[in-house]
């Protein structure tokens, strides 16, 4: 505690904003410890944490320190070359302020900054990095986390989030920065006047929308369609741009949930703005019933993830991320083949925790499946490999079960704007054939067999305490090998901390291959104090037995 108190006093003597000082002075003993016992960690997802004052919190000082370290890394990497970076932000509290602080630090380090003129989706930031030929990008967002969180994502010059090795090098630079002595800053308005900071202009956004529309397979099916859609941006960055894309498609019956239409960093109507959760569809379902909608779509605050509910004649049925992926794989492969636009040796890239059921569909079309670790940056890296070989046209879809998808290579992060278009196109096409997306899922299972999946999140309270409990739980799994789970024998265990035959980087993931086509994967969340468990099988009974049994281990 003595070291914590020492760091606390350094902050008390150095922070110069009135609001920050007020917050600092009102911290109790436990809050001081939680806020200062460590530095907010910089990992492959950049920074993510609770907003507040302290080294373990998201605030202007941690943002400045991180950006100075990032700037030092970029200037060291690109010696004798001009360096530029793109910055964007979502609707979260302080996202715009943090974006401006990052811009001021980069500009002071002779890095040209292109910043969005208002909140924009994460895929737009990725597109801007590529379109403007920037060396790097920064997105201020905590994605789908609760409202008290914010985050800072770093992107490389290919528009994808940075990989592990690069993150380590950046972190080494960050650790050398004294946030009260070493940070260089210019005034934001002065940066604009000197042209070191420049707002991104409308033509780039128009080009992004054009590239999204180019990914359509049969968007003509939407014109004169009777499809009715309700949309909620969950008070995030998707509102304007998703509405524009859907309007361009010609869908007339498109309704936005009014309470969740405009930006709200407090997420007043939905405290956990995550389209992976059915709970966030409550208001959308009410509106959908009024409008007799066929479909509900939802995007998270930075508009890179998408959720879907489908009307079954009585109620709105929530689709899992795997089910959405299965529908997309089937539709894209089937109709691109029919349209004559399916390339030779097509490729789908998915994370290891996403369903292997799509392998059966892909096999029918001679489509290769590439598996990667969790994190869309790994999907982006595989696209880059294809691009370097001159084979980017082979790429069909990137897919992670946590409701993240990407069609096309124009951007390098998951894109809920494009997926809003694709899901509406798919639903409109099938409606003309008098099929709902649920009917299509049923037909897919009739052709390829049964598929069941269940995700379980085990939350641990407390920041420091929760992290320690998670690590202890993972250590126990490694020390005490499980031989049977849910009445099923364990055939093989893959511990990704020891590496894998697939050549993946080491990762804190345990995979259990069970009998009867069942698989269990366990990993800590990279953004919250919880353990994520993924269970898949071709039997619902096995799913339930495995789930009940594994929860007891924690």
Describe this structure in words.
The protein is α/β, with parallel strands linked by helices. It has 3 domains: 38-200, Alpha-D-Glucose-1,6-Bisphosphate, subunit A, domain 3 (Alpha-D-Glucose-1,6-Bisphosphate, Chain A, domain 3); 209-448, Alpha-D-Glucose-1,6-Bisphosphate, subunit A, domain 3 (Alpha-D-Glucose-1,6-Bisphosphate, Chain A, domain 3); 452-551, TATA-Binding Protein (2-Layer Sandwich), CATH 3.30.310.50. Helices cover 40% and strands 20% of the residues. The chain has helices at residues 2-14, 18-25, 29-36, 60-77, 95-108, 122-131, 164-175, 188-193, 202-214, 239-249, 282-291, 321-339, 358-364, 376-388, 416-432, 437-448, 463-479, 540-551, and strands spanning 47-50, 84-89, 112-115, 136-140, 149-155, 197-199, 228-232, 253-256, 295-299, 306-311, 316-318, 347-351, 368-372, 395-400, 404-406, 452-459, 484-485, 488-495, 510-514, 518-524, 530-537. It has a 6-stranded mixed sheet with strand order 1-5-4-2-3-6, with helices on both faces. A 6-stranded antiparallel sheet has the order 16-21-20-19-18-17, covered by helices on one side. It has a 5-stranded mixed sheet with strand order 8-7-9-10-11, sandwiched between helices. The longest helix is centred in the middle third of the chain and has 19 residues, at 321-339. The chain is globular and about 70 Å long. The mean pLDDT is 93.
């Amino acid at each position: 505690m003595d070291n914590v108190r020492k760091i606390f006093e350094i902050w008390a003597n150095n922070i110069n904003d009135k609001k920050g000082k007020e917050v600092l002075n009102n911290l109790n003993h436990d809050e001081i410890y939680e806020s200062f016992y460590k530095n907010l960690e910089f990992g492959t997802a950049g920074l993510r944490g609770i907003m507040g004052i302290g080294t373990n919190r998201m605030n202007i000082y941690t943002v400045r320190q991180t950006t100075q370290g990032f700037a030092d890394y970029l200037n060291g990497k690109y010696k004798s070359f001009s360096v530029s970076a793109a910055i964007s932000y979502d609707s979260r509290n302080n996202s715009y302020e943090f974006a401006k602080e990052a811009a001021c630090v980069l500009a002071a380090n002779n890095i040209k900054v292109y910043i969005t003129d208002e909140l924009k989706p994460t895929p737009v930031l990725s597109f801007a990095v590529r379109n403007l030929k920037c060396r790097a990008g920064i997105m201020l967002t905590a994605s789908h986390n609760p409202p008290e969180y914010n985050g800072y994502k770093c992107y490389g010059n290919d528009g994808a989030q940075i990989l592990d090795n690069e993150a380590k090098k950046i972190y080494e630079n960050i650790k050398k920065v004294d946030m009260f002595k070493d940070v260089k800053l210019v005034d934001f308005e002065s940066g604009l006047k000197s042209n070191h900071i420049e707002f991104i202009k409308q033509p780039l956004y128009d080009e992004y929308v054009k590239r999204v529309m180019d990914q359509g397979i049969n968007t003509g099916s939407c014109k004169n369609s009777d499809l009715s859609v309700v949309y909620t941006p969950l008070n995030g960055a998707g509102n304007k741009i998703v509405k524009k894309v859907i309007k361009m498609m010609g869908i007339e019956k498109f309704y936005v949930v009014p309470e969740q239409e405009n930006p709200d960093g407090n997420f007043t109507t939905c405290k956990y703005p995550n389209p992976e959760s059915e709970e966030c569809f409550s208001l959308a379902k009410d509106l959908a019933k009024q409008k007799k909608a066929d479909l509900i779509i939802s995007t998270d605050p930075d508009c890179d993830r998408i959720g879907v509910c489908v009307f079954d004649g009585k109620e709105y049925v929530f689709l899992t991320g795997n089910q959405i992926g299965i529908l997309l794989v089937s539709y894209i492969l089937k109709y691109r083949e029919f349209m004559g636009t399916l390339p030779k040796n097509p490729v789908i890239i998915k994370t290891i925790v996403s369903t292997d059921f799509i392998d059966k569909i892909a096999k029918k079309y001679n489509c290769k499946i590439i598996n990667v670790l969790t994190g869309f940056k790994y999907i982006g890296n595989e696209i880059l490999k294809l691009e370097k070989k001159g084979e980017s046209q082979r790429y069909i879809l990137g897919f992670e079960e946590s409701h993240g998808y990407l069609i096309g290579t124009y951007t390098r992060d998951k894109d809920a704007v494009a997926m809003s278009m694709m899901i509406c196109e798919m639903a409109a096409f099938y409606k003309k054939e008098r099929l709902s997306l649920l009917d299509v899922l049923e037909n897919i299972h009739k052709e390829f067999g049964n598929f069941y999946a269940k995700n379980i999140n085990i939350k641990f309270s407390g920041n420091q305490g929760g992290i320690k409990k998670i690590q202890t739980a993972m250590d126990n799994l490694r020390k005490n090998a499980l031989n049977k789970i849910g009445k099923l024998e364990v055939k093989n265990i893959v511990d990704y901390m020891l590496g894998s035959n697939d050549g993946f980087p080491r990762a804190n993931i345990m995979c259990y291959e069970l009998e009867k086509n069942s698989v269990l994967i366990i990993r800590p969340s990279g953004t919250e104090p919880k353990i994520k468990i993924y269970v898949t099988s071709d039997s619902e009974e096995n799913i339930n037995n495995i789930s009940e049994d594994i929860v007891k281990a924690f």
